[in-house]
Amino acid sequence: MLFAAVSISTARAQSTIGVAAVVNDAPISVVDLVERIKLVAASSNIPMSPQRSQEMAPQILQQLINEKLQLQESERRGFEVTDADIDRAKTLIEQNSGLPTGGLDQFLAQNGIAPETIRNQIRPQIAWQKLLGSMRREIEISDTEIDDNLERIRSNQGKPRNNVQEIFLPVDNPQDETKVYQNAREVIRALEQGANFGGLARQFSASSSAANGGNLGWLYSGEMAGELQQAINQMQPGDVSDPIRTIRGYYILKLLERRRGDANALTDVRLDLYQLFVPIAANTPQDEVNSKLGILQNAKETADSCQSLANVAVDLGSDMSGKTEGISPNDLAGPVRNAVANLDKGGISDLIKVDGGALLVMVCDKTEESTLPDRESIRQRIEMERLEILARRKLRELRRNAFIDIRM
Fold it and tell me: Which GO molecular function entries does the Swiss-Prot or TrEMBL record give (predicted)?
């Protein structure tokens, strides 16, 4: 392969004549390819040896060809990308990557990457998104589809939730099956050697989640396609899957975290609590113990608000009394959790004996929010899935009708 013999310095010297590919009379230079390989290596934490560069060059060149087609079609349709658009996208990358303002340009400079490299990657992405936005009117989503999605999620509510990242490599043509699988295996090898999953997702994934490093967030069982869900069910946090073939292409999944669900927990409960605590030392005489417990009992019978308990605490000089806001019942200590489990707003617990004393707990406020996604979120997710299918179909059409001359 020609690329194996092209050094960075040589590529710069050939910037006017070194052409890696031509897409509808528009060239992609060898320098463009070399700079993008450097960007992929730096952003994904891939040690880029000459052999690794040679192995990844065809995949990265194909991405550059796709971007050229996307930009050409978007411009033909009248969609423009402004400098302000690119600056906003750079800011978003910095935020998602934990970089300070201006940190992306500094990152490029530190890695010897030309500043235009990131702009040349961002420009077709924005243009393509604008074009796809115009295709939303072709998508119709019925209330029945949303209802079915909600019911499937509700039926799996008590099952584990998984925090998942994805890399998606589409197979748009059966003839590309072997090549795409090899690309997927190459991604796996890079990950095994320490590459950053999110960085690879941003560079190679064809899913809309790529902009967020492939992060899908927390998903209930049943929110993913069957073969993907089956793979996730067999994984442990930190695991990365082998390439998973679906009808759309190959997925690589990473399980970040798993949470066990409560079969009856259809809501997220948050409590504002006031604790009235009376200290009782181990050697306190019984009559004094009875007196202090009597104070708590009287407070239980007379207090009509958390402020009433706070007033008692002031009179007692109880420094360990106070209010806690927005706490989940699951985060409470066992005795307190059990004591407030069935209390509504304004309810007060029985006396709770603990090490070092006794206490009462009143529920000052109680909020319950459904943990199920709302209908609009489900509609947007279905729309995005449909839009991705339309986007791949459109890109496949562009490739089929384009003149593409790969010269290396």
Answer: isomerase activity
